[in-house]
Amino acid sequence: MDYKVDLRDVKFQLFEWLPTAKLLEAEKFADWDLENIEMVLDEAVKIAQQQMAACNEDGDRIGAQWNDGVVTLPESFHTAYQTVTEGGWIGLLANPEYGGMGLPEIIGTAVNEFFNGSNVAFSLTLMLTRGVGHMIEGFGTEEQKRLFVEKVLAGQWAGTMCLTEAQAGSDVGASKTKAVKNDDGSYQITGEKIFITGGDHDLTENIIHLVLARTPDAPVGTRGLSLFIIPKIKVNADGSLGESNDVYCNNIEEKMGIHGSPTCTLVFGQNDNCRGFLLGEEGHGMKLMFHMMNAARIDVGLQGCAAAGAAHQQALAYAHERLQSRSWKEMQNPEAPQVPIVEHPDVRRMLLSSKAYTEAMRAILLQTSYYLDMHHLLEGEESEKYKSYVELLTPICKAWCSEWGVQVTHWCLQVHGGYGYTSDYPAEQYMRDAEIACIYEGTNGIQALDFVARKLPMNGGKPIREILGAAEKTFQRAKSDSELMEPAWMLAAALKQIETISKELTKRPDAIQMVLLNAPPLLDMVGTVVGAHLLLDQAMLAKTKLAAILEEKGIGTQDKKAYKEFLTGHAEAAFYHNKVQTAIHFCYRALPTVAAKGAAIRSGERSPFFAIM
Ligand SMILES: Cc1cc2nc3c(=O)[nH]c(=O)nc-3n(C[C@H](O)[C@H](O)[C@H](O)COP(=O)(O)OP(=O)(O)OC[C@H]3O[C@@H](n4cnc5c(N)ncnc54)[C@H](O)[C@@H]3O)c2cc1C
Fold it and tell me: Does 556 reside within a domain?
């Protein structure tokens, strides 16, 4: 399977739009400059194309296999894993002290788009392994760090996060897995976790599970949960491997997509011989796990963006190749030849919508990652400000990007007609693989509840006011541009809609029911407004860059035919021109949905409460 990504857009967003160059001036990134960062990006795309995309079909068709408690992955996954670990890609963001590359989050996000887009099932292992390494580095004892961090971040040992149990899905606090303290300070673990990504496989000699479990007499709910490091194979004091730690994989799920990622049921301690090691303090499990989950939520949103980007590139190539029907300009001429389907208006609309949503997702994810870098780099109030932006935007990254990621894969499949539904093309796999991002790491419904109930009122509503205030400033700047004026006013109308709704909703006597009922559309409305604001901001920059090229080349835009011919032969000018068209398209097509959703909410309709189900 081929993998293509719009690297030009990634580089535009990173180096022309966002202040990545300024970020690199920080002492922490002294080893990095724009030139070697570009090399990292180019190399990551090469690995995504040559290694990960090369085994994406094997992952889907052969998939993970379970045999008598042992899970195996296709041979091609092993080859790719070796290349990825040898290149140090799991430690992309990790501290150089532990062998990491120490790159900024924003670059990690860009690289992980390539990895997720080329093979999401494979990349899940990288994501979880990285997450476990960072958790032990951040919260482990010196001994735990010594034993685990370097090996995990090098990918010699893989990692998992184990929250879910049969009765404890969204309701994590209902977990029953038990942890009883031994005399030597370790814990005896018994219980069963389900749906564990990468719970068992043969890519690595050991797997380090981070498991939420309950100590005896702990309070009910999430407050009673503690977090444990539980290796699949026991680790001796000198770091060598010992005997099995009594962690048994008794099943993997048959599922819709990501077949190359084993989704495992893990039984801990069926022979009373499973030892776990407390990470942090007793009762702090959920608090710690949120660190891993918040990072993973941005990564899962990235899966939506990555699937959308890959599906769009592939659909675009197909639309140029596939000949079907006459041009709409020659509808009356039965003798006219068939044309590439990219000439049909409906296909063009689907392709431009796919591109627009992909670029909006990329903008939201990269900007959030930039805020995360700023939070890490700065101190005091400024650091807290950026932290609050990340917290506010995390559910939008996760839910908005995964939801629209699936929609984009749907449009891209549709571009293929019947061939899209067959396994001759990757369109159907992109769609099947993308759906899970709406479900795991907290379903999108739960993300929306977190957004409306916790993130919007956070700090007296300051972070949301500031983010929407930035959108208002974008409107103010764009409204004086003749081409962007109308889209800018649409942004202003959508902002007004959000302001009106938040005022009205809080005054209603049934405010709680209305907010619970409408959390997902409310999240979608804000996500759409933020997406439009960022794309318009990019469009204004693109217009300046395009104007400079046109001036240098002495090209005018009045003669439409000559201008179009110029764009066809000048990739850079065409790129900037398309950025502007993409932003306009997004504003016209996406922003009116904010008013439509707003109208539905403001009507006060509550039938789901009254319908008999
Ligand atoms: C392929 C795959 C990989 C996974 N990987 C992992 C992993 O590595 N580690 C791990 O721990 N888990 C993992 N999971 C589990 C995943 O995180 C859960 O499936 C998810 O959190 C939802 O839990 P559930 O399936 O029990 O659904 P439920 O919690 O039963 O939810 C069902 C529906 O009810 C809704 N709902 C539930 N509670 C509320 C509420 N209070 N208000 C409104 N709506 C509500 C949900 O939004 C959803 O629509 C994975 C799952 C899958 C399918």
Answer: yes
